[in-house]
Amino acid sequence: MDAQTRLGLELAGTALALGLLGDLLLRATPWGLNAFIWIACLIAAGCFLSLRWHSQSVATDARLLLPLVALALLFLGRDAILLKTTTAVGVMAALAFGIQRAQWAHLKSRANIPNDPPPLLVSGLRAVVAWPRFLVQDIDWRSIPIDQGGHHTKAVARGVLLAVPVMAIFGTLLVSADATFAHALTYLTDVNIAKLPGHLLLLLGFAWITGSFFRGLLLGFNRPVAEELGTDTKPRLSLGIVEIGTILSLINVLFAAFVLVQLPYFFGGMETVWGSEGLTLAQYARRGFFELVIVTALALPFLLLLRRLLYPTKTSHLRAFNFLAGVQVTMLLVMLASAAQRMWFYQQAYGVTALRLYVSACLIWLSVVLVWFLFTVVRDHLARFMPGAVAAGFVMIVGLHLLNPDAFIVKTNVARIQSDQAFDVKYHLNLSADAVPALLDAMPLLRTEDQTVVARRLINTWGVATTPDWRAWSRSRKHAYYLVQFHEQRLRVLAFSSPPVPSTSVQPSVAPHNPSDS
Questions:
Q1: What's the pLDDT tens digit per position in 341-392?
Q2: What's the CA dihedral at 412, 417, 420, 426 to 10 degrees?
Q3: I want to staple 79 with a disulfide (CB 3.0 to 4.6 A). Which of 45, 400, 432, 518 is the partner?
């Protein structure tokens, strides 16, 4: 059995173990302590494999794993589903970034040094797609000495058969002796056949992701991966400056026309919107905001694609591209400013929701990335663009955790009550544990019937009678349980002093929450 096969078996075994651990831990949502434990095991396994197979680049691999450590710690803080989803996306980006750096480092060590690293998404997808082929083709399964372990396998099987009746006797006695042990044993041994396919898919999914990641990190040792990447620096498909210049020029004309139309709204403010015939504030803000963010999110990777397709034979060609791309990025920044203005108007009129807040955060991140594009790609430093964009994304995720979005939403919308604005109690009760402290603080400002609704929901969700799942533990959930149980007696007085009315929010002159964007 050669070294390549031994490496493949270790990668497959580690990935399978992490897949099984992921199925056991990560089925409980929202992710908290379970995600931290799983990512910590992933990091430990990555360090072990690097030390064993790729010791010369251990320091580099360790630096690539540092963002995973920070993101794993964030799962222990907040409880909001969208925030944890954003953090999970950050984890996937960190894995893809690690694969990209490892691939580029290997390519630079070969004869032909590439000018730019492979695209981040391409690096991640290439590793994921190639993982099954690695298991089937790159591991010499026929060289594995199965017969040598046959004797030990039979001995282990006989030992298991002999231990089963003894364990049954002892287990029955221990179950009778302690109710907590009986409950735990029942939980572990209760197998639902109908759920087995779901468990299997989850196990294989996590195993696939982790196996692809480890295979990418160990690129320098893995000969088949090195061969599939190749060393050719010229793109397989390339376009000239005439084609690319035409594309960029036409798009710039379209963007310029849109920017010119937006100028009255920039300088006229909300009064211009109200004065436009047939245009409501909701139509102007909601419709325009999301479309503009999507346009920017699509235009930026399209610019990067055109830059990679351009194979300049003259410096003037690259300068022409940089000029046209710089003009387009400038207009995209103006569009994002228009989107920010629209969302500001919308939130002033209707309040803050989770979707509006998170998309606003993405707007800020896109603005930073566009400016970074001007400082890197437009100045012929393409290799620096992706690390900066990923770092900006990590900063955005950390900033959202520090902001505590659900608590911020409650506090912001509660402040609107004092201005005779509406407060949608039903919507805010659907927020996570992060919102519980703010809801308790807001109770005196709510109507009596709304206080009853809030008190009943808090008791039913976070009261003494509830049973928390340790896998979903986070600081916010622990704090929510503590606060509600500490004030439970007072909440019960509010909850059962009077029956709640069917309406759970103040009847506003303007709807506080538009379900179409949440």
A1: 878 877 887 889 998 899 899 999 999 999 999 999 898 888 889 889 999 9
A2: 100
A3: 432
Do 35 and 219 form a contact (C-beta atoms < 8 A)? no
Phi and psi angles of residue 171, each rounded to the nearest 5 degrees, phi first? -65, -40
First-residue to last-residue Cα distance in the chain: 56
Q: Report DSSP letters for 74-113, one per residue.
A: HTTT---HHHHHHHHHHHHHHHHHHHHHHHHHHHHTSSSP
Query: Which residues, in sequence order, are CB contacts of 105 under 8 Å at separation 6+?
Result: 57, 60, 219, 220
**What pLDDT is attached to residue 97?**
84
Q: How far is CA 314 from the centre of its chain?
A: 41
- Residues 19 and 66: their CA atoms lie apart, in Å, by 22
Residue type at 318 in one-letter notation: L
Q: Which helix (H) or strand (E) holds 468?
A: none
| Phi-psi map region of 269: left, alpha, beta (phi>0 left; psi -120 to 50 alpha) | left
The model's pTM: 0.81
Count CB atoms within 10 A of the CB of residue 283: 12
In whole angstroms, what is the distance from residue 479 CA to residue 462 CA?
A: 10
Torsion angle, alpha carbons of 308, 310, 314, 319, to 10: -80
- Checking if the pLDDT of 102 tops 80, the result is no
Nearest to 53 by CA among 116, 15, 11: 11
How many angstroms separate the Cα of 458 from the Cα of each of 23, 103, 148, 321, 370? 30, 50, 61, 58, 43
Q: Find tokens 């990641």 and name the residue.
A: 213
pLDDT at 426 over 60: yes
Question: pLDDT tens, 178-193?
Answer: 676 777 667 666 656 6
Positive or negative torsion for Cα 74, 75, 78, 84: positive
Higher model confidence: residue 135 or residue 415? 415
Kindly indicate the confidence band of residue 508, based on its pLDDT and cuts at 50, 70 and 90: very low
